[in-house]
Amino acid sequence: MAEISVTDDQEVDQSRRRFLTAATVATGVVGTGFAITPFIKSWQPSERARALGAPVEVDLTKVEPGQMVIVSWRKQAIYIVHRTPAMVAALPKNDSNLKDPTSADSDQPAYAKNEMRSIKPDYLVLIGICTHLGCLPKQHFERGDAALGADWPGGFFCPCHGSRFDLAGRVMSGSPASKNLRVPPYEFQGDTLVIGVDPQQKGVA
Fold it and tell me: CA 166, CA 89: separation in Å to the nearest integer?
């Protein structure tokens, strides 16, 4: 039987075939990658889901009476105030100067719909966003603050448009804001405050 010899032209043709085959396979892999990428991304948590956030824990043993700390939950500033007995005792005296003293028209969990707007009288937990146009109220806890007048009971003042809130986050008469500062869902676990958990539902709010 005669031997079949491979000419230079045949070798070139085979090399071309190998190159074209490899190029076709590579193109297919790349194309498949582009097709799969959006699908894989759809498995990942969305921006909205990430923004919801997990509960935030705060060690209350580090918050002194009369002090406020600020933490972030769901991209919102959360004000935590350790109220002194004097702060708590003064709250009922503000009722006549408030738009919504009983929080009937304001937003808070059922367990915080009381005069203190809290589970425990000595701890106030608020979403630190003014209910007028979303600015961040500043703390002015001293009664009779020189900048706010002799009748100032202590609380929060919004520098954007002048809304005033007492030490329960209740809006004062004459303020542009119409509602009290919102109260987020939260619970106490010993000396730890957990923001983002409703004790009545035992789940992330």
Answer: 13
Strand partners, 193: 58, 188
Q: Where does 42-130 have alpha helices with state H?
A: 47-52, 85-90
- Is the same domain home to 140 and 72? yes
What distance in Å separates the CA atoms of residue 161 and residue 171, rounded to the nearest whole number? 13
Residues 6+ apart with CB under 8 A from 80: 58, 60, 63, 68, 69, 70, 71, 123, 124, 125, 193
Whole-angstrom CA distances from 142 to 88, 92, 125, 173, 202 are 13, 17, 19, 19, 36
Residues serving a catalytic function are 161
Please tell me whether the overall predicted TM-score, pTM, comes out greater than 0.85 for this model.
no
Range of the domain at 13: 1-44
20 plus 66 within the same structural domain: no
- List the CATH number of the domain containing 139: 2.102.10.10
Q: pLDDT-derived band of residue 15, with 50, 70 and 90 as boundaries?
A: low
Summarize the confidence of residues 139-150 as an average pLDDT: 90
Q: List, in sequence order, the alpha helices (H) in 42-131.
A: 47-52, 85-90
Q: What is the spatial order of strands in the sheet that 56-59 belongs to? A: 56-59, 192-195, 186-189
- Partnered with residue 180 across adjacent β-strands are none
What is the phi/psi pair of residue 51, to 5°? -65, -25
Same domain for 19 and 82, yes or no, is no
